[in-house]
Write a structure and sequence with these properties.
alpha/beta, 5-stranded mixed beta sheet, two-stranded antiparallel ribbon, 16 helices, 9 strands, 43% helix, globular
Length: 440
């Protein structure tokens, strides 16, 4: 045994003798100093004894290499994220030069989305990590009157009828009723699948020709002035420059100009091919912000003139689906007013949920139909649906492309038969369609 360690061990374990007491000085100040020295000596002895038995307690230098990306320090959202072409991939590689995360920045991007939602007065968690299905609320009240108004039940949300509550209780008492209901629903779904014609998804995955590939590459990486206007959509007066279209490079965040122009092309495709498309309306990226961010929150008057028959040539009540892009500070989501199925749907490529969005749109469609068509919408018969069986992004920069492809497929009545691996192709295809001003 080491001599110092053995001495320490004997010092700790040797029974105290009667003559081992420390003489107490007469002066109280000297007594306090002596007590302090004795305690300090014992602390040093304990430390040496602990090191002897357990070895060095130094933390490994390779800690950042073995930790998952969720344990990296949360970096603030860079100011340049709001510019026309923000490259998430370059930002991640420069921020984590020594230990590049393997998830493509997905963990950091989720933290940004959560942080941006936490900054609001009332936010809902975008994902359920514990798997209990509960909605976690984070509240910061600045005005008690405003909070009370937000917490109050809207006039169109009435209590559930008595017979429905009685049916639920009966199902709880007799499990066979619940089993029959599930079996009937499964049989209906099987019949629906048999009635559906087989989908032709080849139209969504047409390969680019060598000439188109070269043209796309020149738009994204070619030389020349970045302010050069590549295309001008005359009916919407949207112009896209080289700088704007470069957001379609890999790892880029999509901007408003590219998204809104693509939505105009989807609208024109529906008019050009009515038999292959549902009757849809596509709001631009500024609609929901205008509707939801008035002085008192909801503001129908600010968007009342956006949907006159004179401008559109139709009324929203005539549509099958109404698509509403929703920008959650650093994240694109999609809301759908399904007039045919009477549902308010919310699609988030991160698997999140924000119940305020469908409720805001429910209030909007009631006022819109009353104002334009002079008809009443029984919103109590509608349902809110968080569409969770959808393709999800696996990185921190493809939310905009997922939102566009949700609209592209659903406006054709097709299932969402794509995945993260298709995003590189979809970016190139979107560049081609914008250049030609025609969505295939």
């Amino acid at each position: 045994m080491n001599t110092d360690a053995g001495h320490i061990f004997n010092f700790r374990k040797r029974p105290r003798q009667a003559d081992d007491h420390f003489p107490r000085p007469k002066h109280p100040r000297l007594a306090d100093d002596d007590l302090f020295l004795r305690r300090k000596h014992r602390r040093l002895a304990d430390d040496l004894f602990h090191r002897h038995l357990h070895g060095s307690q130094r933390k490994p230098s390779y800690l950042l290499d073995i930790l998952p990306s969720c344990f990296y320090p949360l970096l603030p959202i860079p100011p340049r994220a709001g510019i026309a072409a923000f490259d998430m991939g370059n930002f991640i590689s420069s921020a984590f030069s020594d230990c590049m995360p393997k998830d493509g920045g997905l963990g950091l991007y989720r933290d940004w989305v959560d942080a941006s939602q936490d900054a609001r007065d009332l936010t809902v968690a975008t994902r359920d990590d514990v798997g209990l299905g509960r909605r976690v609320l984070s509240r910061r009240i600045s005005d008690s009157r405003k909070a009370a108004l937000q917490a109050s039940v809207p006039p169109w949300e009435k209590r559930e009828p008595h017979y429905k509550d009685a049916l639920k209780k009966a199902v709880l008492r007799d499990k066979r009723l619940g089993e029959l209901k599930v079996e009937a629903r499964l049989q209906e779904e099987k019949l629906d699948e048999l009635r559906k014609p087989k989908e032709d998804l080849a139209q969504f995955f047409i390969p680019l020709t060598a000439e188109e590939e070269e043209e796309v590459h020149d738009c994204l990486y070619g030389s020349g002035s970045s302010s050069e206007v590549l295309v001008l959509h005359e009916s919407s007066n949207i112009e896209v420059s080289k700088e704007k279209i470069r957001c379609l490079r890999p790892h880029g965040w999509l901007n408003d100009e590219v998204i809104n122009l693509f939505l105009e092309l989807l609208k024109e495709r529906g008019i050009r091919e009515p038999k292959r498309s549902l009757k849809c309306h596509f709001f631009n990226t500024f609609f929901y912000k205008k509707l939801a961010c008035g002085k008192n929150g909801y503001d129908y008057k600010s968007v009342k003139r956006w949907t006159t028959r004179r401008k559109l040539g139709y009324e929203l009540i005539e549509c099958d689906k109404i698509f509403v892009p929703v920008h959650q500070n650093v994240h694109w989501c999609l809301a759908i007013i399904n007039m045919k199925a009477k549902t308010l749907q919310y699609l988030d490529s991160l698997g999140g949920n924000d119940p305020r969005v469908p409720r805001m749109l429910a209030r909007y469609i009631v006022e819109e139909v009353k104002d334009k068509s002079n008809k009443e919408v029984d919103i109590n018969s509608w349902t809110e649906e968080v569409v969770d069986c959808i393709p999800l992004q696996q990185n921190g920069y493809d939310c905009g492309m997922f939102m566009l492809k949700y609209m592209d497929f659903l406006s054709r009545g097709a299932s969402l038969s794509f995945d993260q691996e298709h995003m590189e192709y979809f970016r190139k295809r979107t560049v081609k369609e914008i250049i030609k001003l025609r969505a295939d």
